[in-house]
Design goal:
alpha/beta, Maf protein, five-stranded mixed sheet, 5 strands, globular
Length: about 170
């Protein structure tokens, strides 16, 4: 199994962009382990300025706290790589930029930094949307760049699922 290619990510991003445009929604990103790759893939699509408001690369805990509003208690109790931190990152960037949707990613891209409880490749995603908070956890088996690409693919897939469900129940 191989990580997704940039071409695959761009195609997925195109579809997400079409959904965002059709729904008249905006999006913001808060990224740690992907270092801005999600925002890059979203903005690689012509016309993305109609729906991408911006993003924050919060690689350090101080940026997570001071810019995104992640609570010190959350970082102390759960760590930077946790579902709780991802949720606070998404909610923080949504507040900060005033977006309709926000996606946050935090994890351990590798090759170092992992441990028994939090292995290399561990990633948490969080999507904040009107009336919805979704969280996902993955452990990728790739190298650093592969883990980053797989994380972006998972974030885009999460957005795809949001729009698929919204079309079924008329929400969003």
């Amino acid at each position: 199994m191989n990580p997704p290619s940039i071409e695959q990510l761009l195609e997925s991003s195109r579809v997400v962009g079409q959904h965002l445009l059709a729904a008249g929604l905006t999006i913001a990103t808060a990224e740690s382990c992907t270092g801005g790759l999600l925002a890059s893939v979203l903005t690689d699509i012509a016309g993305s300025s109609d729906y991408v408001l911006g993003g924050v690369v919060s690689y350090s805990n101080s940026v997570k706290q001071n810019l995104l509003g992640v609570q010190l208690g959350t970082l102390e109790a759960h760590g930077a790589v946790s579902a709780e931190t991802a949720a606070e990152m998404a909610q923080g960037v949504q507040r900060l930029l005033g977006s309709d949707l926000a996606v946050a990613v935090t994890g351990i891209a590798g090759p170092a930094g992992g441990g028994p409880d939090k292995p290399v490749g561990l990633v948490y995603l969080h999507l904040s949307a009107p009336g919805t908070e979704w969280a996902e956890r993955y452990v990728w088996p790739y190298d650093r760049l592969g883990n980053k690409r797989a994380t972006v693919e998972a974030a885009l897939a999460l957005l795809h699922r949001l729009f698929a469900l919204a079309s079924l129940d008329g929400s969003l």
